[in-house]
Amino acid sequence: MTLYWITVQDINDVPPKFDLEKGVYSVQVPENRVPGKNTGIKLVVIDPDIVNHNDFQIVRGNEEQKFRIDSATGEVLINKELDYDKPVQDRTFTMLVRLSDGANEMAEVFITINVTNINDQQPIFVPDKYNYTVTENTDCDTNFGQVTAIDPDLPAQDDQNITYYLSMNELTNFTIGKDSGTLYIKGCLDREAATRATMYLYPRAMDEGGYGHDAEPATVTLNIADINDNHPYIQSPDNSYTKIMENASPDSLKPITIMLSDWDTEQHGCPCTLSFESTTPADIIQKFSVRASPNYTSQYELRTLKVLDREAQKTYQIPFRTSDREQVSGTRYLTVEVGDENDSPMTDGFSTIKVYNYQGQFPSMVIGTVYVTDLDDYDVGDKTFEIDATTPPEVDTYFDVDLNSGNITMQKGTPEGNYVLRVKVIDKFRNETAIGEVAISVVDLTEEAVMHSGSFKVAGYTAQGILQQQGSVMTGSSLYERLKEEIAKIHNIDTESVDIFTLRDVEGGATVRYNCHNSPFYTAARLNGVMMMYRQQLIGSLGVDISMVNINDCLYEAVAPCGTSSCQQFLRPNITSPLVIGSKTTTMVGVDIAEEYTCDCGALEPPPSVCYSGFCLNGGECIQANNTLSCKCPDNDYGPRCELKSARFEQGYAWYEPLKVCQNASLFMSFDTKEDTGLLLYSGPTVIQPWSDYPRDFIYVALKSWELQVYMDLGTGTISMAIPLEKNTNREFDYSITWNDRDVTFQVLKCLGNSTSDNSPECRKSIPLAGLKSPSHLLNVGAPLQLGGVAAMVSFDQLASSYGWTLVPPMVDPFFGCVLELRHNNYLYDLNATDYDKNTYKPCDAPVPARVIVGKESIVIIVVSLLCLILLVLLILCLARRNKKSVSYPELDGIVKETIGGTDIEGFGEKDMTQYDLKLLRVGPNGYLYNEDGTNSYTNPVYENIVNP
């Protein structure tokens, strides 16, 4: 049988069609999908023919060729960039796809691609320029306009979700509604304080509620309309100052021209008038006259009526009444200095110079000028100066005097010590000679002395004014010396242990930086803390205004150099350019300390690679290996740099350096105690608010009836949280507090024992920071960090009332137990680094000091014992009296005669020639004579039985 195989060849005779079940024909694609990527569309074809040539073609809806089809896979790919925002037609693509196998009827299907929006465009202000007008000192604490921004990513009718804000500098005078864009004035504006009576604001906007893109700032021009609120001022002479020479006849002097002007606009300003103020002293009116210039308006002439003498009075403050065209009047002062002539005699003088030589590294430099007693001030050109021969040679080695100026130069490398420099001064004009004696004290100031320093500001004084001698040079004193005395008093140390080594002029006064050295140097926390406690006492004693303690801009958010970021202050001594501040008789050469700021939490950046003194604490040994430092510490109770980790508190307290100002901060403490109540930590104000912008911030942690409580205020309102602890257990407790600009979180690890997890609701609390009462949420505290309790301070009730706290921390007993570790961020506190503490023992297992505790029961026992002892003594005395035998005294006359020897009875004119011993005449309380060896000849047996009663 023959088999035949018949092969049926396929021809392309069946039309293809789309499989609508297995294919994907509608998708959403984000607008940032890049060309070449798959859209997600999958074209699936049903075609039973084996031989076919399927071809896809987009025949409608793809006019800009945004998409293409891969014929091999049926996938729709992106061909060109998509943009949801422009044009609007790009948001939805409905395309007709045609399928052809080249022989049969074609198949068609619609595919839909919806392009979705992403936030890829920054908001824009519409419009971007605004112009508003307000009236000075009238439109106060009010809104004056509004700015508007839109998000191009969103339809105009949708909520734009824009947040508006201003820069930190602009917040000084303005605020903006964060959701509305409404602009507000804080307080009032002053046209004359603004440049050309115009202020500019540059509002910002951010989409996605403040988490998206920033807009280019808008420009707001604010014109300040004028009101007549200023009286005329003296435009000329410059700075309201002029000079008239002494001894000059009034007729020989040209008049002083006084020109007036007004800061207000012309319609409110000059022509202006000037006259003596009604309160002008009679002495000034007798010496000066003023009249209007005959040829000019708003111009006057000042003349002298008498010959002026500089030695009688050096300057005159002449008060004038000035008025504008609308009679707005006020007082202006003209300073008249009497010029100097060399007309006064010169005599010997004495002055002092104190040099604080930082690390002995000051270069050769002028430290002051030779002083002689001379009422003339500007006659140095008539004098010569040379070191007198009576000056010791070693002084001549280290100090030079300029022949013509009298400037004293200290050579580089001058040793610490006291020197007396005698200088011969010759006045060539008056042919006079005098000796100027200068006592120079050179003190080498160490780095530790600078870094462990306190600071404060004296209002209304210049640095030179603080040094100015009051009274005679021998008996008077300066504010500088009185400050040292008062600082020594509040610290109970000698005045010589106080160094004021920096005086610097600042706006509104002078800043002072000082240290106290009582071996070792007091810490800055102690100096600033004690100064704040005794500030009012010093103000009363010195009669000056100490307007700030602890000079640190990080503490004041309105002027903080880092804005709302972390902030840390560093002291940078200037070695090459010391401060030279002097009066005639007193000069201080101090260290110019630059207060620099970094916007971090003070970590060592980069970590040191070379050992240096102070890297390892508490006597630890520094070890260097592979450019990495480590410390060899006494035992395991120390941290990486030998920080002592533990301390025991027995109802006392200890002061430590304040917490650093950190943007995202955390505080961790480990402790144990057997007591159910005790104050663990407080950092915040200790006195009633001393000045208006003193920080209100504080943090408080206390254990109360086995409940751990936290009170805190970051300037946004007071909050409190509490977590119950496992009671009556001998275990450690670990808690942490974290805070940022959103919330504060408080957590205690296994608060109720091992059965509770760390994140259980009982062990973890969190509170959002509601409201925006201040521009940041940093903990700004300049006062010491107090552990275990608090030193003497006002009550928390008083503090809450003064600083506006809405919750009052409870006043609990000091802590009795151990603090085992304290960390602020990555900074491990050295609990040995305190020099102001009470009932604090370091480390935790330090020996317990011997103590005598007397209670009520002990007092009763002592009283009864004393009564029994008194009764026993009385009984012994009675028995002794009863057993005492009668005493017969021997005939002493013979003994005396035998001892003394013969005497001239007839005239008693000769002295005894026989040597005798008066000890033979001593009689004991029992009536018996003492023997030659000092023992009594009779012993009562009753007393022999009594030993140490």
Helices, strands, pairings?
Layout: E1 17-18, E2 26-30, E3 38-42, E4 45-46, E5 55-60, E6 67-70, E7 75-78, E8 92-100, E9 107-116, E10 124-125, E11 129-135, E12 143-146, E13 149-150, E14 163-165, E15 174-176, E16 182-185, E17 198-201, E18 204-206, E19 219-225, E20 233-236, E21 241-245, E22 256-261, E23 273-276, H1 282-287, E24 288-292, E25 299-304, E26 315-323, E27 329-339, E28 346-347, E29 349-358, E30 365-369, E31 373-374, E32 383-387, H2 393-398, E33 399-401, E34 407-410, E35 417-427, E36 432-445, H3 447-451, E37 454-459, H4 463-467, E38 469-470, E39 477-478, H5 479-491, E40 498-506, E41 509-516, H6 524-533, H7 535-542, E42 545-549, E43 568-582, E44 586-598, E45 621-625, E46 628-632, E47 647-656, E48 665-672, E49 678-683, E50 698-703, E51 707-713, E52 718-724, E53 733-739, E54 743-748, E55 764-768, E56 785-787, H8 796-803, E57 816-824, E58 827-828, E59 837-841, H9 856-883, H10 892-900, H11 941-944
Parallel strand pairs: 2-9, 11-19, 21-27, 29-36, 29-44
Antiparallel strand pairs: 1-4, 3-7, 5-8, 6-7, 8-9, 10-13, 12-16, 14-18, 15-16, 17-19, 20-22, 22-25, 23-26, 24-25, 26-27, 28-31, 30-34, 32-35, 33-34, 35-36, 37-41, 37-42, 38-39, 40-41, 43-44, 45-46, 47-56, 47-57, 47-59, 48-53, 48-57, 49-50, 49-56, 50-51, 51-52, 53-54, 54-55, 57-58
